[in-house]
Design the sequence.
């Protein structure tokens, strides 16, 4: 009885494998290829585990390693694209999905992703804008225009809150302008998306944070952390006004289903705080200014005038009292002068009128009168 | 110590959508099978050269 043995096909080129184990077309040994593909799958599994643990940077590294063993590994390509998409790098995601579809056209999840992206041209436009703005911010940072770079990056992050590269650049800019608190807040958001991002950890270590602090940081909530609530708000809101939020896009919905499929998103990221009232901040400032001016004219200035008037009255009263007291003193002194004068007049008058005239000192010689000399002689 | 200029070098411009094609071409890396194929081709070329040299000597 004849048995039909199915020929072994080369996984690399699809040609038949010879009995020797070598491919008839590409001349590669089947065992080498099997070993390479097994190693590729091994790295894919590591990458998948890391992605499940939300160590996205580590996952990218493992998945790239997987592609070095088998660049046609569809699962690796799709997952890598998905991770890049999650980190806000849509063009990178696109390139991996396109490659994936190129290697396997049918029954490929990547074609579904690409179809969804094509259905949403606004999102593609948004992605393009983000890339342009990021590159512009990079240019500003290089030319030391830190404030402009910060405004630009914040505008990007407002419309794409998962853009890890943007957060990292923002943190670096904050470190450069010595705003370490904001830098920490920014890096905390990075760690929420990518738990072991080496650059974020490097920056935190440089700012003096210990490993314990970093672990604690991962568990802290990023809701209402105030990252967008500062002087740049107005500029950011203006920049945001024309952009469309991506949270409700079909690709986001698809991601949710993919998350279930891969069972990879075990760590949920928090919803980031939004700037709801930013659009009206200019009006609030104007109203505040007008109220302030009115308060100044109707309350502060009259009160100040009243105080000045009262002070004036008090001063007048005080000086009047002083003048009165001085006048009284002058009158008393004048009276005293008059009494002394009258006493002197009395003395002079009484001396002229008495019979006992004052001793005659006209003949005094050497300071003693004649009577004094006589008295001295008598006493001796 | 963070040196801003040095750190900034780590950030490369990200490709825009119209540069996606270029990104895809750059993405086409070489895997083990490409390297083995290249080595095999080189060996094959070398052996053919050796055979040719042997024939010429004869």
Sequence:
């Amino acid at each position: 009885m004849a048995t039909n043995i199915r020929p072994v096909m080369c996984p690399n080129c699809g040609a038949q494998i010879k009995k020797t184990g070598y491919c008839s077309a590409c001349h590669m040994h089947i065992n080498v290829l099997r070993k390479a593909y097994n190693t590729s799958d091994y790295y894919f599994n590591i990458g998948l585990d890391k992605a499940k643990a939300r160590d996205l940077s580590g996952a990218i590294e493992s998945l790239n390693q997987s592609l070095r063993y088998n660049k046609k590994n569809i699962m690796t390509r799709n997952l890598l694209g998905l991770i890049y998409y999650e980190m806000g790098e849509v063009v990178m995601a696109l390139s991996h999905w396109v490659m994936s579809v190129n290697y396997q056209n049918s029954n490929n999840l990547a074609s579904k992703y690409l179809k969804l992206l094509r259905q949403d041209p606004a999102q593609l436009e948004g992605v393009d804008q983000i890339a342009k703005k990021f590159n512009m911010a990079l240019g500003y940072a290089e030319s030391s225009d830190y404030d402009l770079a910060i405004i630009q990056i914040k505008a990007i992050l407002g419309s794409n809150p998962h853009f890890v590269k943007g957060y990292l650049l923002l943190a670096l800019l904050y470190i450069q302008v010595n705003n370490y608190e904001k830098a920490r807040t920014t890096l905390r958001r990075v760690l929420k998306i990518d738990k072991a991002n080496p650059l974020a950890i490097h920056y935190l270590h440089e700012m003096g944070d210990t490993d314990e602090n970093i672990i604690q940081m991962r568990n802290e909530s990023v809701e209402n952390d105030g990252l967008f609530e500062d002087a740049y708000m107005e500029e950011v809101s203006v920049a945001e006004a024309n952009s469309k939020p991506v949270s409700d896009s079909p690709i986001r919905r698809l991601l949710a289903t993919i998350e279930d499929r891969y069972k990879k998103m075990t760590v949920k990221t928090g919803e980031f705080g939004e700037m709801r009232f930013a659009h009206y901040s200019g009006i609030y400032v104007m109203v505040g200014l007008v109220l302030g001016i009115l308060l100044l004219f109707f309350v502060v200035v009259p009160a100040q005038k009243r105080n000045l008037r009262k002070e004036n009255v008090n001063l007048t009263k005080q000086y009047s009292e002083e003048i009165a007291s001085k006048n009284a003193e002058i009158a008393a002194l004048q009276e005293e002068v008059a009494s002394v004068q009258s006493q002197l007049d009395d003395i002079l008058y009484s001396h002229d009128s008495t019979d006992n005239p004052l001793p005659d000192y006209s003949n005094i010689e050497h300071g003693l009168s004649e009577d004094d000399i006589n008295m001295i002689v008598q006493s001796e | 110590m963070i040196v801003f200029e040095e750190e900034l070098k780590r950030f490369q411009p990200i490709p825009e959508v119209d540069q996606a094609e270029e990104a895809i071409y750059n993405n086409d890396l070489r895997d083990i099978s490409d390297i083995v194929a290249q080595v095999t081709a080189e060996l094959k070329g070398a052996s053919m050269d050796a055979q040719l040299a042997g024939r010429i000597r004869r």
